[in-house]
Amino acid sequence: MLPRWSRAITHLSKLGLQKYSMEPQKNAYFAYRNYAKVAAATTLDSRVKEFTRTSEVNSLNKMFWSKPYSLALPSDSPLRVEEPHFDGIKRILLKLALFYTKQSKSIRWANAIYMRVVSQVDKPAIYDVFNLEKTFKTTFSLLVLHMWLCLRRLKEEGKEGVEMGQYVYEIHTHDVELRVSKAGVNLLLIKWVKELEKIFYGNIVAYDAAMLPDAKQDELMKVLWRNVFSDDGSEMPIDAAKDTVQYTCPRTINKEVIWLTSGMCSRDPCPTYAKQAMSRYVRREYQCLSLTDKESLFSGNFKFTSLESPKVPDHPVK
């Protein structure tokens, strides 16, 4: 299906180029007279883009350096999910309907946990911050990444955490099926879901390996490149690494080489500073979840670090 789309887009692009090349050049004289204005406008536009890009780099390089903290929601947060309490005949009926069993409670909690994952991934901020195009592939990759963060933390709670993680995974699988169907894939749906399941487990193994104490310094960034940034799962280009060394200044923090980038790699399809920032983001969320207590984690009363820019008040804060 994807190759057909690619061929169709390529064919339409060629038709557009042919049409453009076949048009008579009757406006060449006016184009010549306006060349100076166009050149000036182009130069100004390039300067604006360069300034914007530099601002983005400087802004992103300042993110995800703060000390990790618990992601548990405060007791007065409007985002908290509380267990419903009923009295009288309604409670009796719900009890007969097995609403208060351990399994029912675990399913409700698992739904709350997965909603935290979806809330972080479906917001435009995560795509804007890390310079990602919102496609099915990138959305699925980000879902897997945040699922791994949750499942890894649940696993730390032993057998109970593993069981909860299984409920969360089943909800995730159902959500992916709906997303695949919504994307227009109705034929061979089971085959697509199985392929995505293989990708899920492959990514999980890669993230676990990248976080091992003896992992290479840039291993996590390479894994993020393959799983999230790359369109075809290819390795990070060697030329990109060379450009990074040439145009940036390294610092070592937590056994990871952090490049304070002042520009964009010319031959790297993804800005290097975006990959570095995501690597810092993942490591920080990893530590923040470790600091989050079991009760908040199991009940879904936690929230990933907000990636949205803070709103500037209309009047000075007294």
Please characterize this protein's 3D structure:
The chain has 318 residues and is mostly helical. It has 13 helices and two strands. Strand 1 (248-253) and strand 2 form a beta hairpin.
Spell out the key features of this protein.
2 strands; single chain; two-stranded antiparallel sheet; mainly alpha; 318 residues; disordered C terminus; globular; disordered N terminus
Produce a short descriptive summary:
By secondary structure, the chain is mainly alpha-helical. It contains 13 helices and two strands; from the N terminus they run H-H-H-H-H-H-H-H-H-H-H-E-E-H-H.
- Continuous helix count: 13
Element-by-element helix/strand order:
HHHHHHHHHHHEEHH
Count of individual beta strands: 2
Q: Strand order across the biggest sheet?
A: 1-2
Task: Assess the beta-strand content as a share of residues.
Answer: under 5%
Structural class: mainly alpha
The main pleated sheet reads as: 2 strands, antiparallel
Gap from first CA to last CA = 58 Å
Fold topology:
Blueprint: H1 2-22, H2 28-33, H3 35-61, H4 88-96, H5 102-122, H6 124-129, H7 136-155, H8 159-182, H9 189-210, H10 219-229, H11 238-247, E1 248-253, E2 256-261, H12 272-290, H13 294-299
Antiparallel strand pairs: 1-2
Helix pairs in contact: 5-7, 5-8, 7-8, 7-9, 8-9, 9-10, 10-12
